[in-house]
Amino acid sequence: MGLVARHAEAAGIPTLCMTSARDITRAVNPPRAAFLDFPLGHTTGKPHEPDLQRRILVEALSSFETMTAPGSVKELPFRWSEDEEWKAKAFAEGDERTPRHDTPQYQDEEDRRRAEEGGSPSCPVCRT
Amino acid sequence: MGPVDYIPRIRDNYARLGYKAYNWVVNPDIAPWAPLPKPLSQCRLGLAASGGIYVTGQVAFHYKDDASLREIPTDVDTKDLRATHFAYDLSDARTDPNVVFPIDALRRLVREGFLGGLASRFHTFMGGIYSSRRVTGDLAPRLTARFLEDGVDAVLLVPV
Predict the structure, then answer these.
(1) What is the pLDDT of residues B100-109, one digit of tens each?
(2) Fewer Cβ in 10 A, N or C end of chain A?
(3) Residue among B30, B60, B83 minimizing CB distance to A70
(4) Domains held by chain B: number
(5) Tell me, what DSSP letter sits at residue B147?
(6) pTM of the entire structure?
(7) B155 with A8: Cβ contact below 8 A
(8) What is the ipTM of this complex?
(9) Is B130 in the A-facing interface, judged by CB distances under 8 Å?
(10) B24 lies in some domain
């Protein structure tokens, strides 16, 4: 996503990258980043905690007004858990990725049926 | 405990699996910079996220080099959002897509006056595009063109 940020910023659009992988983000070096030290798959918060999600975004988005140097990474003041045990198993050995199917992978069969029937009532113009 | 270092962990893991070493993108230059033109409370914000979010009724992402985009109307009902991805644990994103696509918090921040407004659509795709050339030469220009079309003052980018 850092590459997208650099491209948009070069076209004149200010960007902020959220990240939970600080080393990868530092390497790609986007203009502005906010680092949330949470397990991957939770870049903007914990599920069903809207107040926490809001506080995370307020802290992160404030960077647009406070950062002055390209390549800045703000450390957001939130912890996933007291003991941080998740970090020990944050990266399982082996290849846990799903096989690379080349057909659409729906969350459920109802989604497949709706897509194949042609369009969602909530979004008739943007099927893909 | 400090942050997890993913690059050495992934490098070691690939070596153990006998995979070719991944070429991480490293940009040692000074990043481009466009200052925010006005206070956030007057800005229209865009959002792009790579967690594989789509609206039920849309064609879902596939898992083999899929760099296609989905438009998510900003007034979408959150319960119509779905998540699909080959590379991260989807269990939380599927019960609350806000963990990788913060649409409810952004709408709330507009109501509270913290943000001026939102683009009429957000953009999603499935990350894990391993070719940086493909991202720089194809995906990033398509997204930038959409941001310009959307007339946003700033963009929030959310990877997984």
Answers:
(1) 999 999 999 9
(2) C
(3) B30
(4) 1
(5) H
(6) 0.94
(7) yes
(8) 0.95
(9) no
(10) no
